[in-house]
Amino acid sequence: SFNILLLATSMKKTRVAYFLPDSDTPFVIQVAVPLESITLKDILPRLHISSTNQRNGLSTNTSLDYFVKHRASNENWLGGDTQFINEKIDDYDVPLPNIDGTVVIRILNNS
Fold it and tell me: Which CATH architecture has domain 12-109?
């Protein structure tokens, strides 16, 4: 049982910054999933969107869209000015990109 305890305490965490709709101030949380494998499905239960949404399960909330910010590599159409783009997350099970070790999520109302 000592090994199990050791494993639990050495679990890697991922820093997640997220922006709620109509807000420019991010919330920053730590999610106990390694950076290489973290998905939106891992993050959703931790987001403080509203107590109603949390009771009902956030993944069933279709009035919100989730975007992940990442470096715009090989996006020539942007020109040289924009370093980052926000891309809509359609698959909640795909590992998310990060910026210097932080996953950045923007949440928008789609109504």
Answer: Beta Barrel (2.40)
